[in-house]
DNA sequence: ATCCTGTAAA
DNA sequence: TTTACGGGAT
């Protein structure tokens, strides 16, 4: 941001993003995501939860725990088909067994199987490395960096794109990196805030800003983004957008 | 654009 | 009986 105009846009966006955060926090927070779990367990969870409900991931993780398999060494050494059986409940179990193997192989190759050692790597360098691992895309890499390594990177997901798009803060087809920059360029670089913000967005997406039948009537963001309310109402409630007539809500 | 796949809510 | 899920690879 160098011109005064862009700077003004940036500061306004900062205000909006903080306002959204406050509203979501008052409604849902604090969510304390991944509390009391080891960085390794968080990483495994980040892979297993790909396009899968978290409740199904918990079962898989508990199963690994019960069998004392939740360590880099055990995941590395276990038969891949048996591993698949252990994590069956998380879906895509054959692919995910392969992905878990790929992750621990990387962990041993680069960091002697130590998450602590991995954590010492600079954030963007680590991200670049993780993206080379088969089965780890941008969202999973960022989840590991934020929730397992406690580094200030913002996690973007389908919920994030959906609610921002509905509020006309991004284009519907905005890319991952664009959305990530929107947050990271307009918010303080703070692990605790990025942690809670993403968790709050997920909660919003699941409970209210759902794919079909979003419950806008009870949404904490209903009154937040005033300049965009016209678009917001038009798209989510199905009212025709007009130039002159203000939209009426009961 | 399709495939990978179990689970639970709608 | 569908729908959606804390995606990624091909």
Automatic annotation (TrEMBL):
The keyword Transmembrane does not apply. GO terms for molecular function: 4 iron, 4 sulfur cluster binding; catalytic activity; metal ion binding. SMART domains: ENDO3c (SM00478). Residues 48-207 form the HhH-GPD domain. InterPro entries: DNA_glycosylase, HhH-GPD_domain, HhH_base_excis_C. The keyword Iron-sulfur applies. Keywords: 4Fe-4S, Iron, Iron-sulfur, Metal-binding. SUPFAM superfamilies: DNA-glycosylase. GO terms for biological process: base-excision repair. It comes from the Bacteria. This is HhH-GPD domain-containing protein. It comes from Candidatus Desantisbacteria bacterium CG2_30_40_21.
């Amino acid at each position: 941001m160098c011109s005064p105009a862009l700077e003004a846009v940036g500061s306004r966006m900062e205000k909006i993003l903080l306002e959204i955060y406050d509203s979501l926090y008052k409604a849902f927070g604090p969510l304390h995501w991944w509390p009391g779990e080891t960085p390794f367990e968080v990483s495994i969870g980040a892979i297993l939860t790909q396009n899968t409900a978290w409740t199904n991931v918990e079962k898989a993780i508990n199963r690994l725990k019960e069998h004392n398999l939740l360590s880099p060494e055990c995941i590395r050494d276990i038969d891949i088909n048996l591993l698949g059986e252990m994590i069956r409940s998380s879906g895509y179990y054959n692919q995910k067994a392969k992905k878990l193997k790929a992750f621990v192989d990387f962990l041993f190759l680069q960091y002697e199987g130590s998450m602590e050692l991995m954590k010492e790597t600079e954030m963007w360098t680590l991200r670049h490395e993780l993206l080379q691992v088969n089965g780890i895309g941008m969202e999973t890499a960022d989840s590991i960096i934020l929730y397992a390594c406690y580094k200030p990177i913002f996690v973007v997901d389908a919920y994030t794109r959906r609610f921002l798009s509905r509020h006309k803060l991004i284009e519907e087809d905005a890319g991952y990196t664009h959305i990530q920059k929107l947050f990271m360029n307009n918010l303080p670089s703070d692990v605790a805030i990025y942690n809670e913000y993403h968790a709050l967005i997920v909660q919003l997406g699941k409970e209210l800003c759902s794919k079909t039948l979003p419950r806008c009537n009870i949404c904490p963001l209903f009154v937040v983004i005033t300049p965009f309310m016209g678009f917001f109402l038009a798209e989510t409630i199905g009212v025709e957008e007009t130039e002159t007539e203000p939209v009426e809500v009961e």
